[in-house]
Automatic annotation (TrEMBL):
Residues 13-102 form the GST N-terminal domain. Transmembrane segments: none annotated. This is GST N-terminal domain-containing protein. CDD domains: GST_N_etherase_LigE (cd03038).
């Protein structure tokens, strides 16, 4: 997308030292913006700057799954000066404001995939990615990330990788990962996406999680795509992953 095009959307995303997007939740929105070809620009925020920045913009705090009151992604819709926080309200706004091409936000199959993936894949990614994620953060964000995550864990981030702990986690979720992969391929005869020929929000949920993992650690990414289904969706979404900064 040409940089001289005036953006419709300002996307507030999470900063890392690789200078590309790596938040799995922000990636869902970025994929949607890229697929719909909506002109946007990114403002990357360090972890400790998220709350003060969004407060200054006048956003009302919410409650995320992590317990944070201020989160990214957040967007500003420039034409109406509207600010929206959290991925689902943002996705709903984008779909209603920019309906072409359409992105189905939910389906019975999509809900089943997302629910099972969160409980299973989320656990595996949590144990493998979090202790590595700290290494792609700036010193300020590293301090914030380590302090908040270790307070929640009750131990050092690195303890998640001690001995064979990591392999045990992946071995424990292997069967369900395969089962979710089978669900992803339900409509493989019709196309590479969850619902067939065109992507849905569930595809962006999958591809965003995989791209986030890949930015943090290629080895963890490879662990996931060895299961059928995941890699096919990721490959199909690659055209919408090109713009990542």
């Amino acid at each position: 997308m040409a940089s001289h095009v005036k953006p419709d959307i300002i996307l507030y995303d999470l900063a890392c030292t690789k200078r590309v997007s790596f938040s799995p939740i922000a990636w869902r929105i970025r994929l949607m913006l890229n697929y719909k070809n909506i002109p946007y620009k990114t403002i990357f925020l360090e972890f400790p700057d998220i709350e003060p920045t969004l407060k200054e913009l006048g956003l009302v705090p919410g409650e995320s799954a992590s317990g944070s009151k201020y989160t990214v992604p957040t967007i500003q819709h420039v034409p109406t000066n509207t600010y929206i926080m959290d991925s689902l309200p943002i996705a709903q706004f984008l779909e209603s404001t920019y309906p072409d091409p359409p992105v189905p936000l939910t389906s019975e199959l999509g809900r089943e995939i997302e629910t099972k993936a969160r409980s299973v894949l989320g656990k595996a990614i949590y144990s493998s990615v979090m202790p590595r994620e700290v290494h792609i953060l700036s010193p300020r964000s590293q301090e914030y990330f380590r302090r908040t995550r270790e307070a929640s864990l009750g131990h050092r981030l690195e303890d998640l990788l001690d001995g064979d702990k990591e392999d045990q986690v992946w071995d424990g979720v292997s069967d369900v990962l395969g089962a979710v992969g089978d669900l992803i391929r339900t409509h493989k005869a019709d196309g590479p996406f969850v619902l067939g020929a065109r992507p849905s929000y569930t595809d962006f949920f999958i591809a965003g999680s995989l791209q986030s993992t890949r930015v943090v650690d290629e080895g963890v990414f490879q662990r996931i795509i060895k299961y059928p289904g995941y890699g096919e969706v990721y490959e199909a979404c690659l055209p919408y992953i090109e713009k990542k900064d």
